[in-house]
Design a protein that fits this description.
Length: about 110
Amino acid sequence: MTDAFTESLEAKVAEVAAIDDLLARGLAALEARQKLASSDQDLYAIQQAAVQGLRPGRTWAEVGELFGRSYAWAEAIAKGRSSKRSKTDHAVESTPPAGAAEGQPTDTGTPDQP
């Protein structure tokens, strides 16, 4: 990373931290993080294309070594299996509670005592 990028990022963090109103500060932080996440996904796609482009004629270990990483890292990036996948790769709904398929109630409170 360049010094200008780091300085710009640090300046933005300081700007957001200096906002007095808690709601305005929280909203500014949310907006900044959303922009970072979008840019991060774009950079990930660029990195993935580079790894895939370097693969022909090389082993995953050789590609990983070019980046100072492991073969598993290189293969995961190329195949889109890293932790930087877009959020659309995940389930939209949460896992149902245990026993829901059997018709058991989801209430985990204490049963009524006689």
